[in-house]
Amino acid sequence: MQRYELMKKTILTVITVLAALSSCTKQMELYDVNAAAKNNAESIFGSIDPRQDWNMTVSGTVTVTANADLEDITKVQILTESPFLNEDARVLAEANVKKGGTVTLKYDAPNTFDKLVAACVSSQGVYYIQVFRIGQSKVSFINAAKSRTTRASGSEAPTFTTIKLAAPQMSFNAMRAAEGASCTIDKKSYTEWADGSWKEDMMWQPADDNVLDKGWKMDMGSIYRDINGFATGEENNIKAIIDGFLVKSGNDAYSVNGKRNNLRLIRNSQNFTLNNNYLISDGVNPVTLIPIQGYSIEFKLNNIYYYYYKSEDIPAGMDEVDYIKQLPKFKAIPVERIESSDQASKGALFRSKEFLLPFYNYTDGSPVEGENPASAIFPKGYKIGFLNMKHAKGDYNIANCKYGCTYGDGRLNYEVNHIKGHYNSAIDKNLGGNSEEGMQFIDPRIAIFSANRKIYMCFEDGADCNYCDMIIEVGSGIEIIEEIPFVEGLDYTMCFEDSPVTADYDMNDVVIQGRLIDNTHVQISIIACGAYDKLFLYGVDGSIINKEKEIHSLFGYSASEQFINTTSYDKAPIVDVITKDTEETVKDVLKRIYVLDASTNQEIKYSEKAGATPSVIIVPLNFSYPKEKQRITQAYENFASWAQNKDTYTDWYNTPTEGKVFIRQ
């Protein structure tokens, strides 16, 4: 390796001497396309497309009006994706602006995106988003805000004072508890129900002959009204939220058999961490549910029930879980009534029915078959929990392993999560299940989160952890616990190749990264140095990184002593924060940074000149650069095709070759 570097420096010295002898006083700029450099590059990449400018971003400007449905607004951001419970969302640009103000933002988005997200952010860190197309000139939040008016208010509630209930039936947990230690499911014996704590668990539903007013109807034990779809712009926002958070399929380390594991994401929900997936009634409006998606082939088996209580109602000395088990559960939604098989198979979004949850004001401790005192509006402060009772219509065969009751309060899932062949498949492998990083026995199967001033419930009805089998919007009547996303700036990775004539194009001679901190600051990090020459970074005037500091010395080495973070991860990045103009993007800042090779007196600069050799590239996202002596064409097999035709494989940086790229810990 040292012999290779000595030869490399010798050639460069000869070139420098020849240049001096020919009285060429101008420093050789590596972005000039000379014959030797081009021949070397094309021996590696093939014939370079004369249009190729090595650009991997789409630039644009958009004027944003900060009129989102928030109490106050302190800033506007442009994001890659929805920020709600989404660890992949990144900030491209931001500006400070007050509610009602207008600001124009410039952005550089990865070329794989055709839509972006504008976001207003409150002083408390609450986000409200609006999707827009790349190239769109203006974004306003006013249409999405109107969607708040499409939910039932107190004046729209039916005026009943009693509700007639049909005869109750035992839940699956109650049926299995009745069998005790001899419970058998799919020819397997279970003892989880042996303590009998579920024996009093009864399922109730209104009789269909109740008469309602104000457009509300009865069907299959549920109370609902017809509503008209989405407000303008709302459906795109919901798609962005679902695509960012509740991805159904995947092939990452958390996926099983092509199904994405979203459990780690729903555990970040404020409703999960603070409230154990219970809703709290506001005492003003009716509590309603609006199904918007049922992405499950088993949707016809699903029936949503609810229950409610106040903590002070629990008898002294009684365990809360045991108290909840014996509470009456009331039917809310028969899922088969809200979508078709075609909609389920395609994951369609719909918004056609709003279901109302009555409050039963029984006084003797339990409801009765027949008339019960009831109200369309819950008193304030009730905890409302949900479950999915899964069974075929009219079929209550407790020997079927797919039938069961699954809860948002994970403590109530202990028994059902043991059922082999179905529910147990979602359990973590260390506990005998099939899922990597899967559920614990008391994990929830309904998650609740907030987004755009609305509350959503997402369901896992079976054998995996994607939590997108059903999605229900909470229409009204509930206090909102807002999510507070933390969204970092997008990483842009700048890779330098130190010589055009002898370049091996492993693109790691110097690797730096830029990330937006706020509208006036950028974080600059030196990640790696795969060269022995004496190198300085110009265009960065930080307190740590500046033109006075040799790059190796910042890591504690001398030049020609060691490669840094290109063969193994030896050193943490060198990090500094620099100021920028408010109208500059991170890429603008990086484009003015260059390397001075003091060993050869050469400057290595970024060029946008079409057809130039790629001495410097700026790659969006957290790019995994090639390992030492691995050409970029080996580390990314589609790079050469892109070099030859800039219109093909434009996402080459998303498909690294395993073992040939440097992945930082």
Features:
13 helices; disordered N terminus; alpha+beta; seven-stranded mixed sheet; seven-stranded antiparallel sheet
Question: Termini, distance in Å?
Answer: 25 Å
Q: What structural category characterises the helix and strand content? A: alpha+beta
Major sheet characteristics:
7 strands, mixed
What is the molecular shape? elongated
Mean pLDDT: 90
Low-confidence segments, ≥5 residues, pLDDT <50?
1-33
DSSP helix fraction: 10-25%
**Total number of β-strand segments?**
34
Count up the helices.
13
Based on CA atoms alone, the radius of gyration comes out at 31 Å
Strand content: 25-35%
Question: What does this protein look like?
Answer:
With 665 residues, the protein is of the alpha+beta class. 15% of the residues lie in helices and 27% in strands. It has 13 helices and 34 strands. Strands 9, 12, 15, 17, 18, 22 and 23 form a 7-stranded mixed sheet that branches. Strands 13-14-19-16-26-25-24 form a 7-stranded antiparallel sheet. The longest helix has 20 residues, at 2-21. The protein starts with a helix and ends in a 21-residue tail after the last helix. The model is unreliable at 1-33 (pLDDT under 50).
Architecture blueprint of SSEs:
Layout: H1 2-21, H2 35-45, E1 57-65, E2 75-79, E3 91-96, E4 102-110, E5 115-121, E6 127-133, E7 138-140, H3 142-145, E8 162-165, E9 169-170, H4 172-179, E10 183-185, E11 188-190, E12 202-204, E13 217-219, E14 222-226, H5 234-245, H6 263-266, H7 270-275, E15 279-280, E16 288-293, E17 302-309, H8 320-325, E18 329-334, H9 341-346, E19 353-356, E20 359-360, E21 370-375, E22 383-390, E23 404-407, E24 446-451, E25 454-459, E26 470-476, E27 491-496, E28 510-518, E29 521-528, E30 535-538, H10 551-554, E31 574-579, H11 586-591, E32 594-597, E33 602-604, E34 616-620, H12 632-635, H13 639-644
Parallel strand pairs: 1-7, 12-18
Antiparallel strand pairs: 1-4, 2-3, 2-5, 5-6, 8-21, 9-12, 10-11, 13-14, 14-19, 15-22, 16-19, 16-26, 17-18, 17-22, 20-21, 22-23, 24-25, 25-26, 27-28, 27-34, 28-29, 29-31, 30-32, 32-33
